Amino acid sequence: MKKRSIIKLSVWSSLLLNLCICFSFASPVDEWEAFGDIAFEDGFALSPLNTKIVEEKGGWEKACVDTLYFEKQAQKPIWKIAQWNSKHDLGNTLPIRNQDGSITYANQGKKVIWNQDGSLWLEINTSQEYDKPREENEPWPHLLIEQNFKSQPNIGKVKQLNFSMEIKLEKCERKMSDSEYNPKLHTAQTPFYFVLRNINSEAPDFNTFIWLGIPSYDYRHQQMTDKETISWDLDTSTYIYNVPQLPVWGNITFHDKQWHQAKVDVLPLIKEAIEKMKSKGFFKDTTWEDMEICGMNFGWEVPGTFDAAISVRNMSLKVIDK
Predict the structure, then answer these.
(1) Residue 243 dihedral angles phi and psi, to the nearest 5°
(2) Is residue 14 very low, low, confident or very high in pLDDT (cuts 50, 70, 90)?
(3) CA 277 to CA 289: how far, in whole Å?
């Protein structure tokens, strides 16, 4: 009898231990993902070539020129691709399904490839865009992916904002001679921006926003920097606050053309950015609870003559609420 009791106790102890292990590895119930369609399966709505067309037609949905479909075609894409200031429209481009299952949309100026592992290749060839090296105050081509978050993280109501993404520089070929190239005017770069906006309709700062930048590849720089930068964006009449790269990427270089991962809680960086904006008289009537992350964009901005490509995968913003 005693022996059977010991066996029964041992079974229950084992079950209890297994339950404890399961719960210890379970995701917190208050954690959720801000990004939709992380593997890009639903495709992209495609912008026209000029932002003015979006304004004239009353918004992106009315101005959208095409949809780049990949794995699925029934779902309306949450993702968009912006092809601002380009001569070559990806609209009405026929997709090519490659032997490895990847799908390509391409023309002279750009190429987008969706891979079955959920990674995305973004290529822009501005040797097909510029007739001569870009001069000061001239616009430049973009190839950006972006989305508006359906559920927007509130800065005052979260404990952590765990951001991660992986990128790999595939190529970056400068097509200007040494005498033509001016690093103050010319580069190829892949910034990532969150849109931080005051969403409190009762606040004096309602709808005031900034671009919170997470810099990644820039042709001009071999190493990561520990310096923040603050600038004014003329096109959108607001500030760009770029966080230091080192806390996000570590001491790496994208020029080695290997995969690199950003992994950081961006909440402290966001709060620091807002405080810096307050010191400039911006967001002076804004509380933490007034601020939400409304969306993001990432990709190529190329104010120089370069043929360049980058791959991106596993883009995520895990939100842990208070």
Answers:
(1) -75, 160
(2) very low
(3) 16
Instruction: Render pLDDT for 73-128 as a digit per residue (tens, 0 to 9).
Output: 778 899 999 999 999 999 999 999 999 999 999 999 999 999 999 999 999 999 99
Tokens matching residue 204: 């004096």
Separation between Cα atoms, residue 220 and residue 257, nearest integer Å: 15
The CATH number for 202's domain is 2.60.120
Burial class (CB in 10 A: 0-12, 13-18, 19+), 6: exposed
The answer to whether 142 and 301 are in contact (CB under 8 A) is yes
Rounded to whole angstroms, the Cα distance separating 274 from 237 reads 17
Of 109, 102, 145, nearest to 124 (Cα)?
A: 109
Q: Which domain holds residue 279?
A: 31-40+92-106+113-123+146-321
Has this prediction a pTM greater than 0.85? yes
Tell me the C-alpha distance between 221 and 179, whole Å. Answer: 19
